[in-house]
Amino acid sequence: MSKLTIKTLLLLLLGCSGIRGYSQDTTAKSIPKVWDLASCLQYAKSNNITLKNLRLDTKSAEQDKLLAKAAVLPDLNGTGSLTYSHYNLNTTGETAAITNSGSLGLGSNWTLYQGGYLKTDIQKKDLSVQAANYTVLQSENDITLQITQAYLSILVDKESIVYNKDLVKTSTAQLTQEQSRFKAGSVARKDVVQFEAQLATDNYNLTTSENAERADKITLKQLLQLPAQHDFDIVRPDTVLTDEAIPALATVQSYALSNRPEIKNAELSVNISDLALREAKSGYLPTLSLGAGLGTSFATTPLYGTFRQFDNNFYQQVGLTLTVPIFTKRVNKTAVAKARIAIEESKNLLENAKTTLALTTESAFITVSNAKQQYASATEQLKYNQELYRISNEELRIGSVNIFDFYQQRNLYVQALQTYIQAKYNAALAARIYEFYLGIPIKL
């Protein structure tokens, strides 16, 4: 190969690599690195595989509906054949012969009446499309709650990391102070070791919080179905709303039972079952269809040419066909019986869906009520323990408190802070979930 050709190939390869790399970088840049809750929810609705498959199911149901509508139209089929035959003797009885023959035709069939089956099937397929759409909405609601819970879990981890870092910083300063006192001979080595042990414990708790954040981020990335290698973090809101008034349970239950997709879907299942019964009953009724056709044929003979045969053999036909079911070996009777059973099952599923939703909303109401009370109590508990811990720190600084009393008060403060953080986000999550049943979009 010439040097010019080699250089040209190298340039082409480098160009292709650059284009591929640019494409990958562009794709990576299209996914943000820092997410707020609204971005997470919107991205999941657009990219979650489960939701994508459910939307494909909806498209498939729409195709079934189009097929049901087309069933009321006449069809049209073309036919053609060409046959070669070999005989040991031809028609004159002299020598062996090969003959050919053929035919051309158009045929159409139109179902005029089928016991109401065709019209009922269109209605049934239309309801199936609606049910598929409600299934998508139901899955979106489930994913919304899962993402919200995962998002708030990360926020809990982030606050735990902040206060654990603060504890590590405080323990480090206290250890330095105690080491200075030990060098001055004012405290025993035992006191220094206690501070060293506490610093090690604080570092361990900090590492545990950081690991919990990593694990919860993986959970959220899985719900969003982001690439494993994607750098991912979430936005910490300035405040988390926890002090809103709780809507009345009766209001939430009334709205949920009238508007939630799982209830709509269950109601559609009852209607679909009713239509399936009408379809089954149509099997007892006659079917009337209209048929029409035209065609021609030819055969090789010494009397007529092929085109003349096409003209002479050209035919047209039209006819009505009435099919009356007399004995179907229990097929129709069984279909009707099973359709009635399906109606009862769908009604039971509807009642179960209503009961489950009513109990779920009641449970959510109790949860948010308790969570708000716990948050109020945790806030008071933290306020007093924080002040006592501040006083203990001052006493430790001037040496007027023993180590045991100081760490006892410190542990009470840490427990109160952990309880407060957990209670705050539990109250926020419980409120968002409860309001979600009222149709209020989730936001922090």
Describe this structure in words.
There is one protein chain. This protein is α+β, with helices and mostly antiparallel strands and 444 residues long. It has one domain: Outer membrane efflux proteins (OEP) (Up-down Bundle), CATH 1.20.1600.10. 69% of the residues lie in helices and 12% in strands. It contains ten helices and six strands, in the order αβααββααβααβαβαα. The protein has helices at residues 3-30, 37-47, 49-70, 117-184, 189-224, 249-259, 261-281, 306-312, 331-398, 403-436, and strands spanning 34-35, 77-87, 97-113, 233-234, 287-299, 315-323. Strands 2-3-5-6 form a four-stranded antiparallel sheet, with helices on one face. It has a two-stranded parallel ribbon with strand order 1-4. α4 runs antiparallel to α5 (189-224). The chain is elongated and about 130 Å long. The model is unreliable at 1-28 (pLDDT under 50).
In CATH, the architecture is Up-down Bundle
CATH class reads Mainly Alpha
- Average the pLDDT over all residues and give the rounded result: 87
Helix/strand/pairing category: alpha+beta
Query: Would you give the CATH topology?
Result: Outer membrane efflux proteins (OEP)
CATH homologous superfamily title: Outer membrane efflux proteins (OEP)
Main traits of this protein?
Outer membrane efflux proteins (OEP), four-stranded antiparallel beta sheet, disordered N terminus, single chain, 444 residues, alpha+beta
